[in-house]
Amino acid sequence: MPIELPMISEPLASGPDGRRGRIGAMPVQVIALLLFVYAAVRAVMVSLTYDESYTLLHHVLPGVFYPDTFETMPANHHPVNVWTVWCSTHLFGTSELAVRLPSLLAYLLYLVATAGITRKVPSKLLRVAAFLVLNAHPYLVDFFSLARGYAWAHAGMMLAWWALLEQLERGQVRRLWLPVAFSVLATYGSLVLVHFLLAVLAIQTVRFVTAPRHLRRASDLLLAWMLAIAGLAGLLPYVLGAMEGGAFGQGAAGFWRGCISSLAEHLLYDRPSVDDPLVVAVPLVVVLLVVLLATWPRGGRRRWSEGNLVVLTLPAIVLGSMAMQHLLLGTAWPMSRSALFLLPLVLVPLVVMLTGPGAGRWQGVMLLGLAFVFTGHLLANLNMSHTREWFASGEARKLFGLIVKDAPDLAPAGRVITVSSGQQCFGVSEYYRMRLGLEHLSFTERLPDQDFAPADYYLVESWGQELVDHANWELLHHSTSTGTSLFRDRRSLQVRGVAVAHLDQGPEPFAGDAFHGMAQLIWVVPDPAPEPPVLIIGSGMVLQHDERNWITFVLRRRSNGTIVQERMIASKDQTRETGGPEPVSVVLRIDERLGPGDEVRFIGLPYILFPDLHLDDRTMSVWR
């Protein structure tokens, strides 16, 4: 009769003696606990990032459980991340920890899986070393303390590895669907893991076909294929939309000089700083080749086990699938965070080959050396202020708090405070306006190759320091860890908060006619003209039904019939959600003397005619 083999869900042996117990030895558990606590504290301390903020405000809170547009930042909709963050925020609110809680759960699963993979390494010292090789990477830990789909992608991938290795070790061809199910989870965390899913499915199919009949069950393979097909079918509209929107064209043109070099650069975490990150990637490839050659069957005296064949074949299938996609469909290679899955993809086979049956003393020395290097690199990059990918905004919450604390000395209550910001800090401003109640702050983004727009405060990231106007800007704070500085414009202190003029369109019910034309308020400079600097604020209540249409607010200054100064902002960049009235404002500061008869016009322009928009309570105020 068929022999029923142990299932992965049964208690696992804690050592080579076969005693049942908890996963891994005590040192592994302690290290895992320290890593998890570190990630959890970072989830609280590090400010939300641009991508997290966008996902929360445009996908999670509006309840966009499946992407419906691919023109703007489509890759920020990682399905399993959106679904789990939606649950977390509805239970615990929108704090940084609540938003990132699902990723911490994914980290627990990742740690359990890596402990399970290393649990049967005979030596306790090598078991700890193997666990560190799989975990001691600061760039990898980053994503378990961020609300991104990569956390679930790596957790699902490692769970699939663990389940597959357990089945290989026991010669088991039952429950073939389990690694496939974990691979589907990984794919819903990051679409690039579809290559891993296909590789696991192919390997499980081959294992079923080549296994003795009495050990296999057709229903197991059928279920594995059904899970894979259902998972891929659910992602098909996403894939087609992303292809049409051009998302798959974003990435690296080459494998080495693009995919691998960008991954190596981010894995380094800038410590040490090297001109060519491939000098780090190449030695790791050499190590893999040395291990491969050392274990290669020679002269028929030694044969690879099924486990060795699988752990080497699976990454080869993944890389081959990616290459075929690149050649046939013209898609780009993944870069940096999208390519991060390649790290555990190659480290698991490396650990298996270095600790498997027949591994000698030199394999142990090599494993200890890798663990020492990786752990030292992790310890050198421990921080509570930033992540490698979005380091500039790591302390954005602190900087916004400093602005709020300083603003009462700068302007009277009721005046809009203007902030000109670099891209990453601007990207999180919308979240912190909601989180910290900063509705009186108006943010403007500094685009690449442009100067900072005139404002009360400036958030200058490391790549904009050369644009600082030291003659007129006063440094309030500089973060040495993120390279971001906060400046106050000394000239703003000269705006004394005296209202020169106030133009009001007056409130009208939003149930009135939709706004399709051009709304305009005009201030004509009197004689005598107010002394500079003059601050002009245009504001109104905007109702957008969805993200396809919005109103652009423009403040346009004319002198002798010629436009001499202009500021504009789109309502979609300031509104927190669609479907209800939201305040929008645009600010123009004039530092030179105005001439009597000059005009400043406050204009509202719709992007397109439909869907309908509503504009109400338009006001323009002039301060000096």
Q: Which properties best describe this structure?
A:
624 residues, alpha+beta, Jelly Rolls, 4-stranded antiparallel β-sheet, 17 helices, 45% helix
Query: How many helices in DSSP terms?
Result: 17
Using only CA atoms, what is the Rg? 29 Å
* SSE topology string: HHHHHHHHHHHHHHHHEHEEEEEEEEEEEE
Strand order of the largest sheet: 2-1-3-5-4
Oligomeric form: single chain
Number of domains: 3
Q: What average pLDDT do the residues reach?
A: 84
Strand content: 15-25%
At a glance:
The chain is α+β, with helices and mostly antiparallel strands and 624 residues long. The chain is 45% helix and 15% strand. A five-stranded mixed beta sheet has the order 2-1-3-5-4, covered by helices on one side. Strands 6-13-8-11 form a four-stranded antiparallel beta sheet, with no helix packed on it. A four-stranded antiparallel beta sheet has the order 7-12-9-10, with no helix packed on it.
Walk me through what this model shows.
The protein is α+β, with helices and mostly antiparallel strands. 45% of the residues lie in helices and 15% in strands. The chain has 17 helices and 13 strands. The protein has a 5-stranded mixed β-sheet with strand order 2-1-3-5-4, covered by helices on one side. The protein starts with 25 loop residues before the first helix and ends with a strand. Residues 1-24, 298-302 and 507-512 have low confidence and may be disordered.
Give me the secondary-structure topology.
Layout: H1 26-45, H2 50-60, H3 79-92, H4 96-118, H5 124-135, H6 138-142, H7 149-169, H8 177-189, H9 194-210, H10 218-245, H11 255-268, H12 278-294, H13 306-329, H14 342-355, H15 361-380, H16 396-410, E1 417-421, H17 423-436, E2 441-445, E3 457-460, E4 473-478, E5 485-489, E6 499-504, E7 519-524, E8 534-544, E9 551-559, E10 562-570, E11 581-590, E12 599-606, E13 613-623
Parallel strand pairs: 1-2, 1-3
Antiparallel strand pairs: 3-5, 4-5, 6-13, 7-12, 8-11, 8-13, 9-10, 9-12
